[in-house]
Amino acid sequence: MIGAVRAGWAVAATLLAPALRLNLSRRAARGLEVAARLPERRGIDPTPRPPGPLIWMHAASVGETMSILPVLAALRGRATVLLSTGTATSQALLAQRLPELGLDGHVLHRFAPLDVPVWVDRFLSHWRPDVACFVESELWPNQLAACRARRIPLMLVNARMSDHSFTRWRRFPGLARHLLGAFDRIQARGEQDAGRLRLLGARSVEAPGDLKFAAPDLPADPQELARLTIELADRPVWLAASTHPGEEVLVAAVHTRVAATHPGLLTIIAPRHPDRGAALAAELNAPRRSAGDGLPHQGIWIADTMGELGLWYRVAPIAFVGRSLIAPGGGQNLLEPARLGCAIAVGPHTGNFTAHVALLRQAGGLVEVADADGLAGFVAGMLDNPALRRQLGERAAASARRHAELPKQTAETLLSLLPSHVPLA
């Protein structure tokens, strides 16, 4: 039965290959793919494989990529890492962060091949990884099957299994057991995720902690930070970070309400996907940073640049973290603002980050709001009570700095999977 399902998936993916190629071209035209690198999505790459041990790590998008940066640093000098991602935004982020971390030449970025058997086989034949590692919840049948066929050890790190995913996978217990059973080692981000993975048939599961707890502080350009700090001195300011469609209109309504009692209020909106900046600026009649527009004297400013979220969390210590006000939501990374001492609010829909919410709630470093009215009350309250704002931020920062040794431990586990005949550098 499982063999038939797997074969059916492989046949379906092969038949869809022409449509997938067309879709890639369309995505490139919309800026969602890097046109010059589309062949990588089909496993085509003329770059020579570097000598020595090579670990293939796959992180789907920005959040997963950020979580493993400390692991990449821990692997430096011990193995080359081929890091694949699936979005143009993650590629742009890595182009900035890898040089900052001194990882150029140690980490190679490529776009992941789509899950078409011939494309995956071409990718693996070229790169010949000694170990393959997937981040969080990446379970692509053809990729896993091809790795197993080549006897490449497999690891799943920071594994998560949300309520929705667990319910879905339980409908296909045999397939879940087959896919999860492919992994030689699984590190879950928490005991709840580990328990669900075990129930679905995973083996060698442990729960050492969430890599996102061990991530470094988001960076910020010191000159720009100094400039904006001076420019915003004594001005009321707050940030709506990682917002998703529909939330920005609610944030604008919050701004109007709070500005009535706080003259000169600046609301910074940093959308989760910066490519939405132009449309948001037009919709909200607001200036935007990527267009070179400066800070308004009062109003909304669209911060639609890549890699500057650490700057916004530092200049606006009152932060709402998006993808949480409108169902189904799911939430975004709360630990990034927590580490920087922000007073944080989220909406009610944070199902993908329940552990983070619970941690910050228990520490008294998070305010949960039900709707835009609640968010307006939070913003006004934090502006009116700086001492309470600092207290919330201090509690959040203290609770977020955990598992400092986890990236090193994860790197050691990955290295332990290298075949014994492959010498370490």
Automatic annotation (TrEMBL):
Q: Which residues form a coiled coil?
A: none
Keyword Cell membrane carried by entry: yes
Q: Which reaction does it catalyse?
A: lipid IVA (E. coli) + CMP-3-deoxy-beta-D-manno-octulosonate = alpha-Kdo-(2->6)-lipid IVA (E. coli) + CMP + H(+)
Under InterPro entries, the record lists:
Glycos_transf_N (IPR007507), Glycos_transf_N_sf (IPR038107), Kdotransferase (IPR039901)
Query: Location of site Transition state stabilizer?
Result: 136, 212
Q: What is its EC number?
A: 2.4.99.12
The entry's family comment says: Belongs to the glycosyltransferase group 1 family.
> PANTHER family per the record?
3-DEOXY-D-MANNO-OCTULOSONIC ACID TRANSFERASE, MITOCHONDRIAL-RELATED, 3-DEOXY-MANNO-OCTULOSONATE CYTIDYLYLTRANSFERASE
What is the name of the protein in this document? 3-deoxy-D-manno-octulosonic acid transferase
Q: Which organism is it from?
A: Rhodopila globiformis (Rhodopseudomonas globiformis)
